[in-house]
Structure formats: C-alpha cells, structure tokens
Amino acid sequence: MSLLTMAYRNIFRNKRRSLLSGIAILIATMSILLLFGLIDGMKDDMKKNLIDFYLGNIRIRNAQYTAYEHLNPLMLGVPLSSSMNALAGIEGIDTIAPRIKLPAGLIRDTETGLLIQAVDFEVEKKFQHIDVYLKEGRLPESPDAREIVLTKWLLNKLNVNLNDKITLLIQTKTGGTNAMTFRICGVLEYPVAMLNSSSAYIPLRVGQYFARMDDLVTEILIKTKPAVDEKLMAQTIKMLPELQRDYEIKTWKEINEIYSFFEMAQGIYIVIAIVFFILASTVIINTTLMVVFERMKEIGTLGALGMEGGEITKLFFLEALIIACVAAFLGAIAGNIVGIPLAIYGIDFSGAMQGISMEVSGVVRLKLSLVNTVLVFCYSIIVSACAVLIPSRQAAHIKPIQALRST
Amino acid sequence: MITIDALVKTYREGESEVHALRGVSLEIKPGEFTAIAGPSGSGKTTLLNIIGLLDDADSGKILIDGRDIQTFSGKERARFRREKLGFVFQTFNLIPVLTAYENVALALNLLQISAKEIESRTIAILHEVGLKGAENRLPSKLSGGQQQRVAIARALVKRPLLVLADEPTANLDSVTGEEIMKLMLELNKKHGTTFIFSTHDPMVMLYATRLIKLHDGLIVSDERR
Ligand SMILES: Nc1ncnc2c1ncn2[C@@H]1O[C@H](COP(=O)(O)OP(=O)(O)OP(=O)(O)O)[C@@H](O)[C@H]1O
Ligand SMILES: [Mg+2]
C-alpha cells in the first residue's frame, strides 16, 4: 500500500472539488500555451515580413543614406554591378534583390505623392513572392516596360483603375526633374496593412533610367539560405574590398528594434505565465487546505500509527500533484487542439491593426511547437507543485493528539 | 514493563486550569489486560495519551520497557509508536480509502518488513479477528463491530509491546461490544500482548484482569482479578 495509491484514491473522495482544481490548472495551461503560440506566431510573421518586404536578412546601403533618408538621397547609392560581382563569391546567399526607392508625384489636376520602388521582378518573385500577392492583372512584361504595379489600397486612394495610365514626376539623382508615364498592369494585395498603404513597383532598369541612376541602386537586400548565420555573413561582406568602406551592412535584427524588443520581452512572457499559474494554483491551494482540515482525524490516526510528518505531507502533496499533472497534461493537449484551427486559419487582427505601423500581418497564425508545449507543461506543474507544498506542509505541523481530538 | 510515577498533567486554557492527572503512579506487568475506569473527565484519555506518546505530562516519570519516553524527540516518538504501540480508537479511525486488508497492512508498510511477510501476517491476523472474506471491503462496507475488528487487527499485526484502547466499545451496541472484549481478551491470552483500555461500561470492566479506577485525576482503586 504505497502513499501514491492512497493519494490517488483520495482524489476521488470529493470528485467535484478535485475537478475544479484540475479545471483551473487545465485552463491556465491551455491559455498560456495559446498565448505563447500567438507570440511566436507574431514573431515569425514579423520576421518573415521584415525580411521579405523590407530588409532582407542583410541590407547594404550607402553609409550616408540613413542619415539623409528623409530626403531620399539618390546620389547616396550602391553601385550595382560591382557589388553583385563581389557578392557572387560569398557562400550561402539565396537571393539578392536590388531596389531603388523613389519618391514620386502623380501629375493630375492635383499632385499626390507616393513612394515607388524600382525592382527586378524576376528576383522579387523569389524574394518576396510578389506574384503570390498579385490579385489582378500581371507583372510588367519586360525589364524595360513602362508599367507599374500598385496595391489595391493605392489604386483606390489615387482613384485610378487597372490599365489606366498615370504620369509620375520625380527628382533625378542629379537634382533635375523628370516625368514618365506608366500603365498600371497589376494590382497587389498584401496581408500587412503597412505594405498595402505604400507599395508601388516599377521595373529596375526603367527606374534607373527614369532617375538617371546609371548603375546605382539605393539598397541591396540579401536573403540567406536556411541555417546560414546572417551575422557572420554580414561580417564577411564587410570584409569585401569593394564594400569595405562607405557602405552600411546590417542584418535585419540590427535594423529593426521592435523585433529585438519582442525577443528581449521573452522573459516577461515567462513571468506572465508564472503569475497566471500561481493564480490558477490558488484554487488547488484552497482545495488542499480544505482537504487537510477535513481529514484531520485521519492525520491523527496516521500519526498515531507512527507515520512521520514528512510522509503525511507527501500524502497530501501527491494528491494535489497528481491532479496538477493530469490537468496540465490535458491542458497541453487542449491547447494544441484549440490551437490547430488558429494555426491554420489564423486570428484576424486586421481591425485592431488598422493604423498601427508594425510589420505584422492582419491575420496572425498561431505557431504551435513541441518545445513550447513541454515548457508550458513543466511550468504549470512546477508552479502548482510549489504552491501546493504550502498547504501540504500544514498537515505535518498538526500534532496527532490535536488531530485525534477533532473527531 | 510500564512504570509510572507521580504523573501530573494540567490543561490551561486562558485563566482556568484543569487538573486532568494529579499524581498518578502505577506499574503494569507484561501481558496484563488492564481496564482504566472512571467517570467522564476523570483523566482516562489523558493517561492513555501520555502512555501512548501522543501527549506530554507536566511532571512525573514514565518508563516503558525501561526507557524514559519523556526524553524522546518527535522522530523517536513516531518510531516508538510505529514499532511498539498499537492503538484502538473509540471511533475506529480506519482510513476510508483503504480496504480492510490495506488498513492492516499499512501498519506494517511503515516498518522494514518484506512484502511477503506483510501479506502473510496481514491475512493471518484478519482471519484471527474473524474477518475472513471481508479483506477487500472498504470500511464503509463494514459494520461497526467489523470496523473495530479491523482496527484491532491493525493494532496487533505489528506484534506490539502494548495496545492502548480508549473506550473501544463506546460506539458499539452491547452485544457487539462484548464480542470485541472477548476478542481482545482472546488475543491477549494467545499472544501475551499487554492491553490497557479505558471504559465506563461495567460489562467491559468484567473482562479486565486488572481494574484501575480513576477519579478527578487520581487512582482511587486498583485490583487484580
Ligand atoms: N485539550 C484539553 N484542553 C483542556 N482541557 C482538557 C483537554 N483535554 C482534556 N481536558 C480536560 O481534562 C480532564 C480530563 O479529561 P479526559 O479526556 O482525560 O477525561 P476522560 O476520563 O477521558 O473523560 P471521558 O470519559 O469523557 O472521555 C477533563 O476535565 C477535560 O475537560
Ligand atoms: Mg476519554
């Protein structure tokens, strides 16, 4: 007759109360698992968006560009051919996307400004999967086609339609003005609100010619192959003689602070989880206290039989621990089951994300992971075990004589 | 075997004092079947609790098997109870989630005894107390008399030096109570186990081979029969 069997049977003496304790822990475990899944999903989504649409794994810019970014200094560019040649020797690069950021004005009865980007569409298909986000029309036919793709949102804002022609006015690298007419050949729709309000693309060569950039681009984005250390690669690129001076070479993490903040906040999530588990544990603490009080006579009997305080503590501790383990286990399973549809279909935050300039998609998919499941399961058990130790130890302090008298 | 000398116990509750024992001295020999009788409040339970190492006396000496139990630490007390003492309670006090068999075996589980021996001793004592066939029943499925038999088996299975029973028949009807007394006496004769039990029931006193009467915390008579 082991203590464990006794503890196990004791669980069923008051089923409703045991159930209640279990449910509190189950819900806490499930909720925290879903919360962690959501945070991880957001992080992954943000990372993907930052890399695909904004920064690449590594971004190369002219060292002066960032300081004058608000002026869109086209003369502070990066020479494309020599850079491409230099980068050709680097291992681990998946795709290189040169981009030119051009502020432009729409010539009509009134002038409306927009930021266009000159890109290599063939590259962008690989880099950001631009074809996936193409909702209507097509991408420019050739690298020299005077065609533009816009987001649906911009289409509405500019009050134009697919296949309309628009004339854009820009300032060239040398400071002169230039205008060019583009046909709207495609309409894009992104999952990220921020992208939708600002994305307009023209072919790279057209852009270079339009702005008299010669061989310059404003930035070169590099996407690394999976499992390549981007930091190390950035170091290597910095050593290239062609790019040694005058260029800013940074990884996406170095550039974007919000993501790093997310990562730094990891410790806070754990604290939140523990606080949550402690709250849930109050139910089981209370139950255990009641149980100790109710079974006073038994505590006295066991004491009279010569069972020591530690053993009696163990008896009550095990009872609560079994409940906590089962509940945490079921909570972990429940979290994964509830999480599956949320991982597949995502949670729609687009309403809430309106107007928030963060690189997070409107629909965030939960990221479920075994690591998180095991971690949350363990947290849940450790916290409830510690919590339950308090009332269990009470049982050891009761003298058999006092306990026996309470009949 | 048990030597008690000038035992005093006073309960204090705030201002008031209750003199539960006021200098009790007695000697109990191995194998005695002793009844402690007396009206309510005379100090029977208090005396049994002190002998059973559940409570402390304020002054006086008590030796069991030559050992001064008042010098024991908490751990030593638990160990002594575990190994040497058996308790039978007025309200039976079986563990409700354990079967008759498990309740008895529990007393042996606390000792360093092989599983095989635990089984054989448990079965044997349950048969002795007349519970053959009821081994796997939970206390709630046993009558009061049967529950007290389990409790007696639990007290005796460890082959204790001494069994302490505080009003073991008080919660039983007179017929069952008498059966329990017969059983205890039989076991006392068979195993030579020392019994000390308290009672106010004259019928129960008839079974005792020694009758000690307490009144207001003092022994007023002590007769061997
Ligand atoms: N824990 C306690 N605190 C205060 N007074 C106590 C305590 N235990 C017992 N007493 C008092 O000590 C006296 C002796 O009590 P005790 O329980 O030993 O008597 P008893 O002979 O067993 O009585 P009963 O036949 O009613 O069981 C009584 O007056 C009782 O009220
Ligand atoms: Mg009493």
Account of the protein in words:
Chain A is α+β, with helices and mostly antiparallel strands. Chain A has two domains: 196 residues, no CATH class; 182 residues, no CATH class. Chain A has a six-stranded mixed β-barrel, surrounded by four helices. Chain A has a two-stranded antiparallel sheet with strand order 2-10. A two-stranded antiparallel sheet of chain A has the order 13-14. In chain A, β3 and β4 form a beta hairpin. In chain A, α11 packs across α13 and α13 runs antiparallel to α15. Chain A is elongated and about 100 Å long. The mean pLDDT of chain A is 90. With 225 residues, chain B is an alpha/beta fold. In chain B, the strands form two sheets. In chain B, strands 6-7-8-3-9-10 form a six-stranded mixed beta sheet. In chain B, strands 2-1-4-5 form a four-stranded antiparallel beta sheet, with helices on one face. In chain B, β1 and β2 form a beta hairpin. Chain B is globular. The model of chain B has no long low-confidence stretch (mean pLDDT 94). The complex binds adenosine-5'-triphosphate and magnesium ion.
Task: Briefly summarize what is shown.
Chain A has 407 residues and is α+β, with helices and mostly antiparallel strands.
Strand order of the largest sheet of chain A: 3-4-9-6-8-7
The major sheet of chain A is characterized as: 6 strands, mixed, barrel
The N- and C-terminal alpha carbons of chain A lie at a distance of: 25 Å
Radius of gyration of chain B: 17 Å
Uncertain segments of chain A: none
Mean pLDDT score of chain B, rounded?
A: 94
Number of strands of chain A: 14
Q: Which oligomeric state applies?
A: heterodimer
